[in-house]
Amino acid sequence: MQLSNTYKNLIILLTTLIAIIVASFFWDKILLPLKNPLEITGPLSISGYNPSNDTVRYLFFITLPLSVFFLLKIFLKDKTFSLKNIFYEKFEEVETGGSFFLIPFIIFIILIIFQFLSLDLFSYRLDTLHDGDFLTPAQNYISKNKLWLASYTVHGGSDILYPVFMWKLLGVESIGAARFSFIFLICLLKLLLIVLSYQFSKSLFFDSNKKIIFFVIFTSILITMSDYTVPLNYSYFSYRDIYIILFLIFFIELFTTNKFQTTNSIFISLIATVSIIFHIDIGFYINFILIFYLFYLSIIKKYKELIVILISTITFWLVLINIVGFEEFRAFLSHTKNMILSVDLMHGLKHPTPFFSINETEYGARATRGLLLQIIAGLFTLNYLFLNKKKISSSKKMFFVFLFMLSFIMYKNALGRSDSNHLRMSADIPILINCFFVLNYFLIFIEKKFNNILSKKYSSYFAYFVIILFIFINTKNYNINKTINFNKNLSKYINLKDESFIDIKTNNFIKYFGKINENSDCVQIFTFDLAVPYLLKKPSCSKYFASWLASPRHKQKDYIINIINKQPNFILYLSEGKNFDLTYKVEPPEVFERLSLVNSYILDNYKFYKQLDDYIIFKKSN
Questions:
Q1: Is 560 within 8 Å of 598 (Cβ atoms)?
Q2: How many angstroms separate the CA atoms of 571 and 607, rounded?
Q3: pLDDT tens, 295-311?
Q4: Sign of CA dihedral 487, 489, 491, 493
Q5: Among 489, 475, 483, which residue's Cα sits nearest to residue 118?
Q6: b/e map of 432-446 (b: 16 or more CB within 10 Å)?
Q7: Residue 575, SS3?
Q8: What is the per-residue pLDDT across 169-205, written as a single tens digit (0 to 9) for each?
Q9: DSSP 71
Q10: How far apart are the first and last CA of the chain?
């Protein structure tokens, strides 16, 4: 008996749902023994949990339902399906939609700038952990004129270069100026999201009559996924995603025509090179996609484009090495390698079990939602591969294959540290994919249901109605008085003294610790209060200003050498600085527990000197 399309679709859907349930049951069954060759001490290593468990579980959970869906699609609906046709897809020239994009594009840019100029710059207090994560390495650079040789950072060059750039630009080395660097980047991110939406609307949306509606709605969604929060910017799209957005803007262009595109090939090579310098994880994801794209080019025999990308990438790396110097580059490579090998055990939080952890674990619901968003994005992408030109006028299937690959691998952020913030950040690309397809199919449905209601003429009316609605909903983000006085407010903000950002207790400690360290040219801390060296306007004695990052045994030995070389008289040994692992229900390990070798050296060579409130200071033994 020949099954109808409805029954076939129902079978595919139900079987895929069953595969998701089966994958959920097997989640906790996948257990790998802990391997800790670097002898890292962290909550996961203490509990004997291998962070690679989450990666393997994630791979199984996502690939099982997607594989079932893909195979059933071929078996039940399209036995003639061929990946070769996807690989050798002929890219057609896109219809830009005419000049009607221009006005809404400009309106959104004005709204973003208006919101930026309306910001309240005086609403943030100093977070000695997260603010210190960029204030102290920036201070180290100012004092030593060195990057990775002076600071061992968790994220990469962004922790150093963004604040330093703004300090140089504004001529003020202050907390406010450093904070403003990230506020400015968030504004830039929002502007780039408008450009990305334009690229999706122009190049990927398949009905020219409704492009303007799609652009307006899609842009409204994307720019609201980013918030002006510092120093913790963990909205769906954060300033860390600037390089991802830039990469996609140029990457889309490579799928719009079969013509050789030198400029776009060079730009994606440049972004791939720069991104890994600023953000280790983001750079890794982009370069991962770029490598697969090169394999794709070799398969479809686009050798000219492949050669241009390879030569461009090599050239940019050589230029970069020449700019930073070979010693800095070696330090960067060592830094990157050690972060990749050790960060999960140092920072890791166990990923909640999908569905079964919703009422048991604090982030169970968010984790389950994040995994389902990934699966749905994958299903949309796979289904798109099976659609023919009769349904889609200009297919860009391979782009969405790469886009989902990017979404898939970027979930590593959530696997590495499964707290609320990282789970939210890892949902950005799957939400983008899902919004694209849902909005496409919704507009198709409206067009079929109400014939010609979305013609080019009425589409423009509806688009401007959406813009007016968007402005009305976000009225609180726009303030004319603040906009007029922005320069004055910014000047006040960046010139605020450090005391304005800290409480009385911290201020008293800084004054006292600064007095006893008056004759020292550096500051040694062994706590989570990373901002202390900056507040004393001195570099950290060791490049391990964030001490817990030296948890690997060989790094602890290097840390001890740093202390021996500098011989600091005083060490801030313990304080109430925010422990980033307080999300655990059990008591997280302190710095001295994570770094047993360094702690032993300190206890052997330093003794208790003074306790000031919650700050415990040690002094060098005679």
A1: yes
A2: 10
A3: 999 998 889 999 999 99
A4: negative
A5: 483
A6: bbbbbbebbeebeee
A7: coil
A8: 999 999 999 999 999 999 999 999 999 999 998 877 6
A9: H
A10: 92
